[in-house]
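My current task is to audit a protein record that another person submitted. Please read both lines and tell me whether the tokens look consistent with the sequence. Do not assume that whoever made the record got everything right. I have pasted the whole thing underneath without changing anything:

===
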Amino acid sequence: MKLTDVDRRLLALHYVYPVPFNKMAELLKMDPDLRNLFNYGTDNLGRLLQIPEQKAARLNEQLQQHEQTPFTLLYHRENIIPIPITNLAYPKPLKWLVDPPTVLYVKGDPTILDASMKVAIIGSRKATDYSKRALSFIVPPLVDRGAVIVSGLAKGADTMAHESAIHFGGKTIAVLGHGLFHLYPYENRGLAEKLAEHHLLLTEYPPYMRPARWTFPMRNRIISGLSESVIITESEEKSGTMSTVDHALEHGKAIYAVPGPITSSLSLGPNKLIEQGAKPIWNGFQALENSSFL
């Protein structure tokens, strides 16, 4: 992938100021090519980014330190591909978000992003064998039609979604809540290495950023943003899974939920969604029938 000069300058800015694009859009509006990025005074930088003077001064100092840093070369050495929002390779659906990622950092096969259909499969970290069995009916028809399975590499339902995609011969994308130099949860290290080799790891955070409580809710908008539809297996009524659903609903994505036994607390989430209008699903053909992919 070829990077332009503005792409490279944006990589430098994002390295020291890793925020969504809406928080730096005014700067790009005033200076679309970022030609003056390393020449702004603290006052101008603070005004354009709408940040306090002290923070602007610190940011300006960091920018000066990294003006000559060869980020593209450093990322290449780590097999990391940066995709700035200013680049043609950036996924168009993510640009429709209120707060699109400024840069995507990916590791693996970036052509997977070009797939015409992506389906998110999410659920509880406490997901049981019921989710795994449900996915054995849902995933095969999807991957047979070339759909890419998107999830978050968390324990439980996310892990099952990635593993099901691989098991049934499909491709999968893991959206991370941290930089690529870190991994959470540690138990999924082997799975992450497999995805980095044959599938795709994706994050909006520079490689050095560690996981934090706030980063995982943020990554949920990317999971739904990349996907045409979202499937929920098992989930509590109030959880991070539901925040992904909220993002998906805001952008008109199709929501499917696996009906569950009323005796299970992990059925409360999907059963409640069905009551509220989500489509019940028990095989992948149902998602295909309602898809623009056909």
In short: The first strand starts at residue 81 and ends at 84. The chain has a mean pLDDT of 94.
